[in-house]
Structures are given as structure tokens and as C-alpha cells.
Amino acid sequence: MYADVLSPSAVERFEKCPKQYWFASKNFQSKPRGYGGAVGSCFHQAIETYIDMHYKKSFEVALAWSVANQEYFSGEVQEETLKIWNAWIQKHTLPNIINVGNLTFPITELAFGPTGDKVHGIVIQPKNQVNFESGLRVHGFIDMIYAETNNENQITNLVVVDWKTQRYKIPFIHLKRQAQIYALAVQKLTGFPVRVEFAFIRFPQDSLVKWTPTKEELTKLEAELANLQNHISLLPDDKVAGRVGEHCKWCPFNFDCKEYSDWINRPNLQSKIWHTMTLEELAGEFDQIRSKKAVVTKQFYEIRDLMISEMQRKNIDMVGDFMIDNRWDKEYSEEAETVIRDAGGASYLPQKILDEIEMKHTTYSPGNPYIRKVKNASY
Hints:
Strands 3-6-7-8-9 form a 5-stranded mixed β-sheet, sandwiched between helices. A two-stranded antiparallel ribbon has the order 1-2. The protein has 2 domains: 8-234, Lambda Exonuclease, Chain A, CATH 3.90.320; 265-361, no CATH class. Helices cover 42% and strands 12% of the residues. The protein contains 13 helices and 9 strands. By secondary structure, it is of the alpha+beta class. The radius of gyration is 23 Å and the shape is globular.
């Protein structure tokens, strides 16, 4: 299987589910990101422009410049981006612009990897080439690097910053591979000690997650990743199996996955009962399962996917991404953030149902985060 160059997301993907890695390596079409993805992209472009201007213009000006002539960033997306920035910057400061030798910090949009490779459309230059004695080949894209210096303006430490715009704080265990590869690459490029920080900008009070590796940890990590790369490259395509679990509901390739399909269609008595229900009856069953406030179980996914299958069978258009649409997100964002975080995420629902939702009667609770009341719906 293809493993010529590893990225943080590729390593995480393979360790989570080899089949997901395989789908991505074969360029299978994934589901679009939707509103949340647009806000994330908008923020990243705006903050990079703001830093590159050395803070000489306001963030609002940087935002306007960075999204000019890009229809993907609607007015609502820009408003949301500015809102979360204003909340975050009240509690935090960006690093000062400093010159050390021939370098100006902070550095933004650093692509590293093999020379000539492309990451996020940026061609990697020889000065950013990362070579490892073990033969490991990795590439990646770093949002920002700033330098910590001593009284003589000498670099003592480099800090890698990755901006996170998710509505929930990702546990560090799911960020570890990204932190490891970034630290490994920057330390190899520069020779300086490295600290990695994840900045969750929607959480101004408790924004930063930090990790500082030792030199011994990075040496061990290089060997571990080199072995993993070799293992992936020797794995035949026809031997790649999906690893079914809770992560499947977020997988952008789940509708193409045989293991996932077999799992949600496995025969049992309850499945037979559910298969006879209407969409509204299924929604009621779904609501009852979630109202127990129990750990998400296979029942939850099975009934959710039966709903999706029924929607597809009746040719009801699906929303391309999570059901948080612009209207709902704007009106209930603060309450929704807590609910969705507690519930573990949102789910897919059809546009027809979304359009018929009575917004003011939506019930928000950890037990009922994303079943919305449908009135006068006919299927």
C-alpha cells in the first residue's frame, strides 16, 4: 500500500482504521466539510495574513483581504470568524515580531518534507527539506512558529502553534501524532528544542494544550514511525481491513466501506423491528436511546444509519456535512457547543427535515442533542 511520505493525519488515519487510510490514498471522494470547515479555513487565512502584516493592520482588515473574491467564505462565515477571534484575543496575545539573524518570527505557513513535494499547494523548498537517517519520509504544514530568546537575543526554544477551530477540545491523545511529527521535523530542521502548542480559539479561558518532548523521545519516535511506514508499504491492498468503531460516524468514506456496511446491516431482532418503522418512529427510538445519557453504543449508530438509509432510499437529499447549519449555529451557538461536546458530536440529517424544523421548539439537552422536531412532514 502507498506510504512514500507520511503526514500527521495519515499516521493518525492508519492507526485509527487502515481502510480509511486506504480510501484517502486512493483519492476516494470524501464528504464536503460544510459551515464548520469554512470557518476554520477562513480563520487560518485571516490569522496568517494578520501575522504576515506584522500586526500593522487590524485583524478585521486582514480578514477582509484574505477572503476577497472567495465565495466559499460567506458573510456569516466571516462574522463567526471575527466573533471567535475577538473573544480569544481578549485573553491572549500573539508573539512579538522579532528578528534573529536573517529570520523574522513568527513564521507562518511552513511546509516541510521532501524537496519538490507539495503540501496544501505549497512546493517544499530545499531549505525546508527534512532528512532522517532511518529513511523516514514525512511532510506537513505548520500554522505558526515563534522563537523564545534570551537576553542576548539568541534562540533558546522554538514553539510550534497549531490553530484549532473545533467546537470541542480534542483530547491530546488524538493530537499526539501531529505534535510528535511537528516537533520531530522542526527539531531536525533547526536543531533547537521544540514545544508544540494547540490553540483552541473557541475556548479563550482554557485555550492552550502544550507538549514538550525530550530528545530521547524524538529519537525513539523516529524509529517507531520508520517501522510504521515500512509496515504500511508492505501491506497488500487486498489485505486492508476496516476497523469498525465509534470513529466510523465521523469517517468521510463510511458509505464506501464494506466493513461498515456489514456492521450496520448485521441481522438481529431489534434491527428487524426498526426496519419496519417510519422515519418519525425511528427518530423517536433514536431520541429514547440518547435520553438515557449512556455511553454511545452500537444501537445508537445502527438506528442512526437506518435513518440515513431510509432517507437515501426515498431520495431525500443529504446535507453534505454535520447538521449544524448556518441558521441554527448562529442562534444557538453557545448552548450547542456544550451539547455537542457532551454528546460526542453531531449527525447527518436530510435537508428536507432541516427545512421543516421549528427552530424555537428544538430541545437541547445532553440526551437529545440533534433530533429536531418535524412538523407536518410527509415522506
